[in-house]
């Protein structure tokens, strides 16, 4: 078999996470990509289901009203640090 090089672009975080995952599985990126390509060719499709990621909605302002509180003496000096405050 004659090897051939390919260049692909991927963001840094994806690359780092993939390298870590594949290393834990005992393979490098080249092996993992070769496995993917061979499976895609064998099955004549992408060898896994593609699912849409659920839309993440930003919380509405005020949605935590009444669920968070702060003690009345929050800003009061702590007894444990009294000697450092003088």
Describe this structure in words.
It is built from 3 helices and no strands. It is an all-alpha fold and 86 residues long. It has a domain at 8-49.
What keywords describe this structure?
mainly alpha; 3 helices; 86 residues
| Largest sheet features | none
Supply the number of helical segments.
3
Order of secondary-structure elements: HHH
Tell me the β content.
under 5%
Share of helix, binned: 25-40%
Tell me how many strands there are: 0
List the quaternary state of the chains.
single chain
Tell me the structural class: mainly alpha
**Any idea what the shape is?**
elongated
Low-confidence stretches: none
End-to-end distance = 78 Å
What is the typical, i.e. mean, pLDDT? Answer: 89
- Rg calc: 26 Å
Element layout with pairings:
Elements: H1 12-24, H2 29-43, H3 82-85
State the gist of this model.
With 86 residues, this protein is an all-alpha fold. It has helices at residues 12-24, 29-43, 82-85. It has a domain at 8-49.
């Amino acid at each position: 078999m004659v090897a051939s090089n390919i260049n692909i672009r991927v963001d840094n975080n994806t690359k780092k996470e993939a390298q870590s995952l594949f290393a834990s599985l005992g393979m490098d990126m080249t092996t993992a990509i070769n496995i993917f390509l061979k499976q895609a060719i064998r099955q004549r499709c992408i060898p896994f289901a593609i699912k849409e990621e659920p839309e993440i909605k930003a919380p509405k302002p005020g949605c935590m009203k009444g669920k968070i509180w702060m003690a009345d003496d929050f800003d009061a000096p702590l007894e444990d640090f009294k000697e450092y405050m003088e």
